[in-house]
Amino acid sequence: MKKRILILSTGLFFSFSNVAQAKQNICVFDLLGKAGESYKLIEEWSLASKQWGGEVNLISYQDEAKVEQDFKSGQCDAFYMTSMRARAYNKFAGSIDAIGGIPSNDIAQKAISYVLDKRNEKRLINTMGKETFEVVGIGQIGSAYIFVRDRSINSIARAEGKKFAVLHYDYAQKIMVTRVGAVPVMSEISNFIKKFNQAEVEIVAAPAYAFKPLEIYKGLGTQGAMINFPVVNVTADLIIRKNKFPEGFGMQSRSWFVKQLPKSFAMVKRMEAEIPAKYRMNLSKEDHVKYQKILREGRIDLTKQGIYEPAMMTVLKKARCTVERTNFECSLSGE
């Protein structure tokens, strides 16, 4: 009898050991694969996660749609992909990327730090059906600027009728492009720059992160330009299946991400500075305000439609008006 109990106990011990040591698959999207800065960030995170009981296995993807597909099928226990696509799993965190919501890197850093703060822990945990998801990190990719193949497209009026590549899964992009009279061309993150470079579209919005690796300068040629007006701040979310990770893992992970922000933003600023001055084009003051108003109206409308989280819109407005108190929107209600 004692022998049978011993065998049973030994079996249970090994069973529990296997559970504890089971690796969590993290599916990581980076346009540049393992050579990209996003993937390198998650590599550093994976090493740190061992201190919180994680035993992760990173899987690199250059196709974001495939990440989502594999996550839904259960092949991934967590994913790291753009907040625009991850918004379906957590609207609060995903709303950081609201159009025109973050006009500078300084505001972006404050916003990400706020979202990852422990006071927002409940907002970062979301139950959908039988599964519970948790945002355990947010990484900065950078402000997206408008690139045009012809610098004569230097005002809102001149964008009318022009083809503009938009990510098909981000409803907000389609709405805003339509609002300025341009023609939205549905694209994937894996091909939207290719369409610009091959003249299938005349306008595209992208962060500096993509400028050199995806050779945006080929689409710019000698006539193109980058309009110095950030239309959206691009971030990436690290979201886990909560039951696949140890208790308290999320809080420690978020704290780690906050500590990495200065380094991440230094990287973004360096990449922005590397874009040659010859491509940069400033909007007139009149058009600058027009763009701000169009984006503001768009945010309010999209929030009413349930695309953005109202609480986050309030936070972002406070952040903007703390930096630029005289801006027209600071005396207006609605966000």
From TrEMBL:
Q: Which Pfam families match?
A: AdeT1_2
Organism ancestry: Bacteria, Pseudomonadati, Pseudomonadota, Gammaproteobacteria, Moraxellales
Originating organism: Acinetobacter terrestris
Q: Which residues form the signal peptide?
A: 1-22
Q: Which UniProt keywords apply?
A: Signal
Keyword Signal: yes or no? yes
Q: Which domain of life is it from?
A: Bacteria
Per its record, how is this protein called by name? RND transporter
Q: Does the keyword Signal apply?
A: yes
